[in-house]
Amino acid sequence: xxxxxxxxxxxxxxxxxxxxxxxxxxxxxxxxxxxxxxxxxxxxxxxxxxxxxxxxxxxxxxxxxxxxxxxxxxxxxxxxxxxxxxxxxxxxxxxxxxxxxxxxxxxxxxxxxxxxxxxxxxxxxxxxxxxxxxxxxxxxxxxxxxxxxxxxxxxxxxxxxxxxxxxxxxxxxxxxxxxxxxxxxxxxxxxxxxxxxxxxxxxxxxxxxxxxxxxxxxxxxxxxxxxxxxxxxxxxxxxxxxxxxxxxxxxxxxxxxxxxxxxxxxxxxxxxxxxxxxxxxxxxxxxxxxxxxxxxxxxxxxxxxxxxxxxxxxxxxxxxxxxxxxxxxxxxxxxxxxxxxxxxxxxxxxxxxxxxxxxxxxxxxxxxxxxxxxxxxxxxxxxxxxxxxxxxxxxxxxxxxxxxxxxxxxxxxxxxxxxxxxxxxxxxxxxxxxxxxxxxxxxxxxxxxxxxxxxxxxxxxxxxxxxxxxxxxxxxxxxxxxxxxxxxxxxxxxxxxxxxxxxxxxxxxxxxxxxxxxxxxxxxx
Length: 525
What we know:
Blueprint: H1 2-16, H2 22-38, H3 54-67, H4 73-76, H5 90-138, H6 148-171, H7 185-210, H8 217-244, E1 251-257, E2 263-268, H9 273-287, H10 297-308, H11 321-335, H12 337-370, H13 391-412, H14 421-433, H15 438-446, E3 465-468, E4 481-485, E5 490-497
Helix pairs in contact: 3-10, 5-7, 5-8, 6-8, 7-8, 12-13, 12-15, 13-14
């Protein structure tokens, strides 16, 4: 009897305190303490996830927090950001250290390639000038006089070298967009071709001109002109191989994000796998919505909530623990499968209701805040300087009136980790400066934007790893699949070749467009 009275008093105390949000926190702490008391090996400071069953624990916490939410949960609940949801294991630490070592090697390789290309380019531009100046320095007295044609060749060499310099700067001297795992095959072939070409010209020049001390200076200048012409043709070849060849679409790639299944289609030309991966990543930052791991906890929480209601009793002893529990869980999950869709429906409907309510409150608050800001007209510029505010001060003045509604909406839609107060103030001052409407200000927060819209610190995807069964320097082919991995998710790319289209023509005689109207006497008028 006393135990029943204690239980009843305890229940009444909790029911009296049910309206306050501290109940959710106290229950959450009790739930977290109970597993730790049973398993002494689990520590609060442990951040290592070694087995897949750790995921339902995270989902279970999320489901309990979701159950304890009310309309004012944003005021008293601490939001879990993207940083707190990620754990790291010893394998991840080893992989990160290996990536750092590989990045150092990539930097050395990149600078080595730039150094080799710069030295070779300097040799190419100095070679024609050296061909012309060396005879003047070594055996100037024995040279034949340079006539009008020879002097005209000087002008030709000068302008051709200038054109070659500008073209080389426009084609090769660009800021690199990425560090590729392998060398660019066509660029390496062009460098080898240029080296062999210049070496053969120097070899011929040393044997036929320097050794014999040729006195025909016009022929020497003409030889230098032929070298510059050949270099211009090689530059044209580089434009075709590096720029024009990939412009014609030949393949269609489907890019799927592994976590939420968001996909896009792109058309690519003749590219290697690593360069196609670079194009895919450039389009990913522009077209895909920002990756939000907080949105993926809903399915885990539902699964953990369903499994939390199951109790498994081992009556055969510790020997058959694993198989008995798995069979019992599978059977219980099958029995509850028919009712799970109703729970999912009501959960999604309740979430949509809360989002719509928060959205309406946010829209009203922002519109009311923007009504206090009026752009200064010409007649209002005569006011005292103390009565005027710059856009930053105006944004700070109206921000408190909308901050609460915006904070609640961002927490409800789980976007709070992507928008800091400083970024919101900057965007608000930008909208005020450019006389933008409240709808334009809210566009960034009502609809998740692409990754480029947010700060680099919140991308969660900066360093990528290319995984492919084929060599990354080989070209795209029909059916090729490669994966781009980062720390939190991966992009699966499937390549399909654009089919050959056979288009025929059919001629329609203009005289065939003639019709006869047949009227029947019985037709009602």
